[in-house]
């Protein structure tokens, strides 16, 4: 199971937080901070796996992350996920973001945080991998985008980039 | 603050604002949140959605939004997709299990799940996967399971994933729907299969046995699929299954070996290797070839793993090491081959990799390489210098080296590899002690307790290095880095406890006891931990006792002086540093010691010793005071040896002793002294080495002495004494320090009794040597025994000599060993849960091997409507209302008119005939129906709300009579309202209008009294017809039905029994996706027929069934009739079909011209065809009658159509169904071989064209079953 998906930047500012088991907001923030502290110390040359953290606890909890320019993409998973598989999945997620936003950058994630959630939801649902085919993901996201456009007029109508 | 919606901050404004107000972000956000509160209070859906979007963004930054959960639900229920998405996102991010508004979401989610748009279903499912509660899971499980057959793969795969979450909250659902889930493994869409594998993989981790039956299906997927992601999951799944089904291994080895050898995907390769290892496939010890192939595979795996480790990619290196760690226990030799590369990894700058390499090293250590490995590990603890084997230029890596957690880990590992298997790897203990004392100083992290235990353990266990140990300990005691640390946090001062204790216990090995006494009483001791101080005190008195005893043998003035000096020094030290200690233990011990020292000081001559016999020839030494030897036996009667871990357990329970029985009634108020005693004992948690027991036992016995002195009463009765003795014995049973109690062999039993007698009999009044030594026996009795044994058994001196572990002599060698084994072999059960882990304990209890019983089904989903159905329904109601109003105007003469129209306004489906036939009863039922449509707007309820009444035939007639008018006006209305509609549509409605306009309408004979089921007691027949409520609202040709059709079934039950009454009759319909109870029975589980039927009596019940499935030939209703007779409940299972013809409407006859016009103009719509043949009875001759009979039967009775045109030997017919399907057909005689015109016609053929394929096929099958005689 994937337990959490986090995106934060080089300064530890969260850009996306997703916990697949409800936890209170204070713990969420503390956890983000802890994971950021663990990860940000690691140079890019080292491996992308961390064996849990003090807060996370539990057995076999692993933190798998990738660092892209200004952003860290972090997946917290348990042992039923393949380490290399999750690394690939992060790549899939990022490529999907890139396709949907056309050259994604941190600002895209900031100003379209709902869309980022939507894209993530097409990759992972309920902590399990839903789809790994980027084309399928993009189609699903665009379908939803079209529907949103069709049914919305008014304040938020122009917000969706898709 | 801007109250105007148009100028309210959008999410983008908020984000920009936050970025611009970096300095006073908190204040800015606080203001924004107060604005959001105002926005939420306003009744503007746009503003609300925007406010929730903003809140959700702030939630990510750590601002609570739980206060807005109600508004979140409001936004979730927005009809606009975008807003709905915002609402769901807000819920996902902020709701917890306790969020109370979750209760309100059930129907909302139900509706969204039923949406026709996959995206809408998608957000509902994704939202649900986060906010599921046990209630939601139970209520929605049936809906979700039904959606497993959804036409869109994207919906199916999402449903599968969310079902896992449902099962977590509602484990019962798993058993009831598992077969449906399993079916998805064969889904045509690969993503759906992958999702199913994913879920089953998660389920199987919790309880693998349940899923063994899936092995064949999974195996097929393994060998046929090329989706790496799914293959990884399948392989992981098999890893969970193989331990429970060893035969799987043999089957899996070939495909996995192939994958390992061929796959280019590193992730898959790795998982294969990982599975092979963790699934225990390499450990196969079966037939020769099997074992060989397993060994070959192991070698292949390790070779592949080496390529991982040699890869420059750190990630591959990491997992390579991870996998090697797992293969190590079974194939150490294979791993050992790669020692070089593993050692290289120890020095990797990447700490994760280094840790994994360390894991491996720990497993690889042996006698030969131990020193090398330890040296390497210690080098990691030293500050970087030139000896460092590899370049540590990476700054972060050096920082990591200094990380206390890392350092502590390294030290733990060093200790682990040295001490594992009772020091099996250590050949030179002096070396090990040196390592330990080195670690004490380089640690830089507090590992004092660990090192302390190691020192004590080695000191006690390894006899041969005891004297060296004592030397080392002396050095530690003198080490100011420990006694006066710069940084007390990281100093391992706890090792001083070991140092003090070992020095005290083995002081006979000391070179200079005086030296030790000085060190033990030095001033710096005052700063140490109380536990260390207490040990210091105890050791002090021990060393002193030893030293004083030794003075006896060379008693002279010099020794007298040094004794006096030492006593003074110690008294001073004790009084200064310890006697005022806040720690009770330290204080008590210091007081004791102080008193003892005082007594000794009193007995030592104050004056210089005279050399008495200076004149005599043989000058004798002065007689030493007897006090000198008094303390020694307290401590050194025998050597202290380690206690075997199981010693306590193996103490057998003496015969006739019931440990659970009260020996005497519990004393209401326990003696304060004894309770204090117990508390003190309990406080000491660790007794693994017996070291704290020494002090405690001694202290205790001393106290005992005091106590017995206090309470000793010569008049005390023998009973009281015996009682106390028993009491004490009981206490000793539970005393962790009391080892050798209550043995069964007569000899030792007798001995222990003797001891007890001794103790009780001791009237200790003054602290004489005799009394002291005797009283102390209590605490040491077991040791005496073991010493004797040890002497006889102790092996000849060897290079490394281990002390024998103490065991009770008559240990039971049975139970405890097995017990510990059992513990090890248990399935890995409860794991420590992390904060993000789900509670899966309930899932583990689900047993899928129990078949799902007939009476078990998912909780009945409340019937509901899709949003657009709901809207359509509303439109329809409005339309009907208008029609009704028009009609009402027409019939104004009627006085009751206004009332009627009013009632019909509200009354959705109920026809006017109800209003006409007014009875009290009807009124009430109407009132009931009046309410239901209102609910239908809020919560979905069945579409057909009208309940069939016993007067059904009459009402049908009424309907038929009125129908033309109604349908006509409706069609007209439709035509009007859809004036912008395309031409085809208008045409269609024209046709139907035309059809309806024709004057002659012949109602079809209804199917009645069809035999359903019978047994000795009960016979059931039934009638079936389109439900009146449906008849009223037929669908016009070419358009989609607005609702589900309903049929009414009339069950007629006859009690055939001549004497007995049948009671409690009810019908339970089997769960079906095609049919659901409607009308007055909607939502019920069973249909009550009658509580009692007299012998030969009858009872009827009308039921309305909503037909949800596609109308087709096989559409069947199944159920069971229950009744009680002779006091037994009997059941009768039945099943009957709902023939498509049921839905055919009675309609006006088309003329030939109209018929051909319909066919030619709408040829494209009549794409479906069906044909059937009917055998005419043998022997019919020339007349046309049988043919016409057959045509009559086929049209009127079977298909409910009507004949349009008749030509010689053929006839055309036409009809229309409730759904708007039009059926056109031709019946003709198949010319027989004989060919004579009008001759024996044996077969007639029916060919039909229709607008719906399955419908016409169903009709054709019906015709095929016709028998014409």
From TrEMBL, chain A:
GO biological process: Golgi to vacuole transport; intracellular protein transport
Entry keyword annotation includes Cell membrane: no
One Pfam family in the UniProt entry: Clat_adaptor_s
Keyword Protein transport: yes
GO cellular component, one term: Golgi apparatus
Membrane topology: Peripheral membrane protein
Signal peptide range in chain numbering: none
Domain AP complex mu/sigma subunit: 1-146
Keywords: Cytoplasmic vesicle, Golgi apparatus, Membrane, Protein transport, Transport
Coiled coil: none
Protein's cellular compartments: Cytoplasmic vesicle membrane; Golgi apparatus
Chief location: membrane
Entry similarity comment: Belongs to the adaptor complexes small subunit family.
PANTHER family the UniProt entry points to: ADAPTOR COMPLEXES SMALL SUBUNIT FAMILY (PTHR11753)
Protein name according to UniProt: AP complex subunit sigma
Source organism of the structure: Dissophora globulifera
UniProtKB/TrEMBL annotation, chain B:
Subcellular location: Cytoplasmic vesicle, Clathrin-coated vesicle membrane
Start-end of Basic and acidic residues biased regions: 708-736, 830-840, 854-917, 949-965, 973-986
Topology with respect to the bilayer: Peripheral membrane protein
InterPro entries tied to this protein: AP3_complex_dsu, AP3D_dom_metazoa, ARM-like, ARM-type_fold, Clathrin/coatomer_adapt-like_N, Mu_AP3
Gene Ontology cellular component annotations, sorted alphabetically: AP-3 adaptor complex; clathrin-coated vesicle membrane; endosome membrane
Keyword Membrane appears in the UniProt entry: yes
Pfam families: Adaptin_N, Mu_AP3
Stretches with biased composition (Acidic residues): 668-680
Entry keyword set: Membrane, Protein transport, Repeat, Transport
Sequence similarity: Belongs to the adaptor complexes large subunit family.
Protein name: AP-3 complex subunit delta
Source organism of the structure: Dissophora globulifera
Gene: APL5
